[in-house]
């Protein structure tokens, strides 16, 4: 059953859980997902515990951190107990990179020109300081996609890690994951998948896809807000990894405060690092829970239908679309250039229609399960009017 808007009724019923939807046309979920109304209450719960229980609050906070990490795990199809919360992707990457020696025969990091700039800066500096080689597969001639064939061809027996995004932040192009995982594993390399732009809007299924290591964060379609990056490592791999960037909670018995060499915590616990960001996890839980409760397949279906409406509407209005036209090859946003995109973007914000602008791309519009088809038409009509001025 669907509403006249084409949405499953449960999705639109949830609009009242996200108060900003009553105040703004909110179409920027690929940048900052809307805040769930329960987030305020959860932050109060966190503060109440601190205020009333003091140090004893840790007895609640530690298990809660693990529960919330597993909510992310559920959203990305990870095996339970294999995901840990970290500050952000940059922080998770530092922990992952500290497991490897870039000076050996397996010393190549294969990535693409379409990947997240922060990750590119990270690997560039790692290679500069610790040796190894960064292999960057360029964009195709269309400037939107990176050919899977070229990426697969760049992977060889010298490859240590294939560090790629599932959904590209600029154009929303979706990686064809299976051949990349297959090529990496055939050559004895590991896949480090950045699923930030994908998590919460399409199935990532890291366990089913045999992804070795997955990183991401919460500010986008997971609607978890800032402060929670995450790292998930395959259970077949995790016990073999020995991170150098550790903290006291990475220890098997942190409260023993041993002074010897670290004895790693079992499994993903070795990547826990130092004292966790408890308020961020409390704030994020309602957003994560909604994604898990709705189910990622249903969200993907709705997302594809709304992004297709945006894409078709943009082409009808004569705009340039810098995202794949095939919904199967696209993530959760569409990048549209109506001409003078920067100015149009500023005028949209003034009208309380929230989208964003990326140089070299255009205006990014990322509807979520709670958006309506009318909201998507509204932004297209406003862009057409503003572009004509
Ligand atoms: C693909 C991707 N990776 C990473 C990030 C952010 O990285 P960090 O969590 O280090 O700020 C973004 C943010 O927009 C992104 O789109």
Summarize the structure in words:
This protein is an alpha/beta fold. The chain has two domains: 9-35 and 295-388, Aspartate Aminotransferase, domain 1, CATH 3.90.1150.10; 43-292, Aspartate Aminotransferase, domain 2 (3-Layer(aba) Sandwich), CATH 3.40.640. Helices cover 37% and strands 14% of the residues. It has a seven-stranded mixed sheet. The protein has a four-stranded antiparallel sheet with strand order 9-10-13-12, with helices on one face. Strand 5 (159-165), helix 7 and strand 6 form a beta-alpha-beta unit. Helix 2 (38-53) runs antiparallel to helix 8 (278-294). The chain is globular. Residues 88-90, 116, 118, 165, 169, 194, 196-197, 217, 229 line the site of pyridoxal-5'-phosphate.
Radius of gyration: 21 Å
Query: How would the global form be characterised?
Result: globular
**Count of runs of 4 or more consecutive helical residues:** 11
Ligand species: pyridoxal-5'-phosphate
Query: What is CATH's topology name of the largest domain?
Result: Aspartate Aminotransferase, domain 2
CATH superfamily grouping of the largest domain = Type I PLP-dependent aspartate aminotransferase-like (Major domain)
Which stretches of 5+ consecutive residues score pLDDT under 50? none
Structural class: alpha/beta
How can the largest sheet be summarized? 7 strands, mixed
Helix content: 25-40%
Count the beta strands. Answer: 13
CATH domain class of the largest domain = Alpha Beta
- The number of domains is 2
Which whole number gives the mean pLDDT?
A: 96
Order of helices and strands: HEHHEHEHEHEHEEEHHEEHEEEH
**Beta fraction:** 5-15%
Q: Tell me what the CATH architecture of the largest domain is.
A: 3-Layer(aba) Sandwich
Question: What is the first-to-last residue Cα distance?
Answer: 41 Å
Strand order within the widest sheet?
2-8-7-6-5-3-4
């Amino acid at each position: 059953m669907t509403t006249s808007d084409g949405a499953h009724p449960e999705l639109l019923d949830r609009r009242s859980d996200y108060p900003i939807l009553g105040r703004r046309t909110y179409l920027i979920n690929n940048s900052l997902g809307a805040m769930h109304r329960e987030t305020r209450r959860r932050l109060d719960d966190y503060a109440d515990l601190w205020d009333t229980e003091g140090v004893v609050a840790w007895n609640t906070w530690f298990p809660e951190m693990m529960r919330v990490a597993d909510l992310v795990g559920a959203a990305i199809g990870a095996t339970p107990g294999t995901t840990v919360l970290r500050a952000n992707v940059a922080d998770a990457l530092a922990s992952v990179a500290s497991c490897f020696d870039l000076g050996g025969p397996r010393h190549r990091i294969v990535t693409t020109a379409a990947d997240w700039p922060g990750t590119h800066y990270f690997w560039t500096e790692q290679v500069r300081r610790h040796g190894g080689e960064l292999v960057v597969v360029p964009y195709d001639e269309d400037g939107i996609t990176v050919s899977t064939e070229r990426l697969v061809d760049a992977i060889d027996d010298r490859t240590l890690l294939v560090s790629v995004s599932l959904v590209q932040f600029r154009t929303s192009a979706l990686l064809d994951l299976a051949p990349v995982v297959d090529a990496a594993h055939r050559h004895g390399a590991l896949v480090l998948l950045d699923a930030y732009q994908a998590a919460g809007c399409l199935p990532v299924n890291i366990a089913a896809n045999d992804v070795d290591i997955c990183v991401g964060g919460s500010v986008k379609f997971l609607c978890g807000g800032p402060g929670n990056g995450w790292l998930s490592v395959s259970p077949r791999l995790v016990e073999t990894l020995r991170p150098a960037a550790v903290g006291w909670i990475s220890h098997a018995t942190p409260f023993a405060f041993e002074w010897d060499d670290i004895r790693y915590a079992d499994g993903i616990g070795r990547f826990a690092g130092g004292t966790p960001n408890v308020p961020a996890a409390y704030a994020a839980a309602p957003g994560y829970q909604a994604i898990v409760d709705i189910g990622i397949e249903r969200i993907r279906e709705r997302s594809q239908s709304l992004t297709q409406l945006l894409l078709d509407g943009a082409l009808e209005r004569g705009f340039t679309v810098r995202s794949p036209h095939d919904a199967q090859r696209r993530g959760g946003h569409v990048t549209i250039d109506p001409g003078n995109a920067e100015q149009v973007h500023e005028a949209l914000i003034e009208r309380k229609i929230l989208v964003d602008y990326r140089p070299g791309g255009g205006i990014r519009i990322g509807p979520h399960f709670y958006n309506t088809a009318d909201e998507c038409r509204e932004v297209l009509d406003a862009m057409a009017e503003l572009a004509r001025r």
